[in-house]
Amino acid sequence: MKITVNTGGGDAPGLNAVIRGIVLSAYRKGWEVYGIKYGYRGLIDTRQIIRLTPEYVWDITNIGGTILGTAIKGDPFRFPVKETNGNIVETDISDTVVSNFKDLGFDALIAIGGDGSLRIANKFMAKGIPVIGVPKTIDNDISSTDVTFGFDTAVNTATEAIDKLQTTAKSHDRVMVVEVMGRYVGWIALHSGISGSADVILIPEIQFDIEKVCNKIKQIALIGQDYAIVVVAEGAKPVNGDITILEGKKPGEEIRLGGIGKKVADEITKRTGKETRTLVLGHLQRGGAPTTFDRLLSLRFGTAAVRFIEEKRFGTMVALHGTEIQSVPIDDVIGQMKSVHLDCDIIKTAKSLGISFGD
Question: Same structural domain for residues 212 and 235?
Fold first, then answer.
C-alpha cells in the first residue's frame, strides 16, 4: 500500500502530530507514505512530493505548523493560471492532479483540512481518488465532530493573554478589548472569555447592542470594579450591523475578518469615558506547540485515518464523538458550519456568572 497525505487551509497546532500518527502506524503495516507539499501543489508539480519515513517524523509531535507546508489558495478545480497577456484566469486542472496521483501509484489520499479542504477532497473522491478526511481548524466550526485539534491550543493561548491583561487593566483602571479568531463562530471567544474571567464576550451568534455592553461596564464600576475585560470574536457584529472586514482584499481572495475590536473599544471610550485599549491576538493563536489534549487527539486522528484506509472507509472523515473516534461521510460534513447553540450549557454558565453578551 502506498498512501499520501496533504495539509490545506490555515495551519493549526497538531498538524505535525497527525502526520506522525499516519506515518508511524502506516509503516507498522508495511506501507509507504508520501507527503504532498503546499496543499495540492505537489500533485501539480510532482517535484514537491516527499517520502515520509519514521525517521522523518520521530520528533515532530510537539512542533507547531506543518512540515508539509499548507496553502489557502490553489484549489485545483479553480487554479489561478497566468495568461500571456498577464491576466489571471481560474482554470480546472483537477484532471492533472488525478492523473499524477495514479501515475505515481498512490492507493489513497489522507486530506487534512477545514471545510474548504474537505470540499476539494470530496470532489477528488468523485473523480476516483480514494480519500479519507481529517478535520482541522482552530475555530472548531466543523460539524460532525465534537472538537477539532488546534482548538484547545488556540483557546489556551487566548486565555493566557486574557490572564495577563487582567493585571494591567486593574493597575490602570482600563477597559481592555481582546479580539480573537474564530471566523463566523464564537467558540474561541466563548471558551477563553469564560476561562479568563471576562466581563463581556461578543460572538457572531449573538448580535450585540453596544449600549448594553457599556451599561455592563458602568454596572461593575458601581460595585468597585473600575476595569473591565471585553473579549470579541472577529466575526461579531452589532444589532442591525454586519461583520467587519479588513481592507485591502484583492479580487478572488477569501474575505479577511478583523477590526471589530477597535470599533468596540472606540465606542466604549466615547460612551463611558473609560480609557480603553485594544489587543488583536491574530495569528498568535495558530502558533506554538500544541497542548497535551491536541497532541493526543491529533495522534488519534492520524492513526485512525490509516485504519480507515485499511477498512476501505473511503469518502469519510475521522471524527471524535464523546470519547471515541468514528467515521462520518464527508458529504454530511461540508457546508455544515458548527455554530454555538444559544441554549447550550456553556452560554448558560457564562450568563450565570454575570457575563454580558451585549444582548
Answer: yes
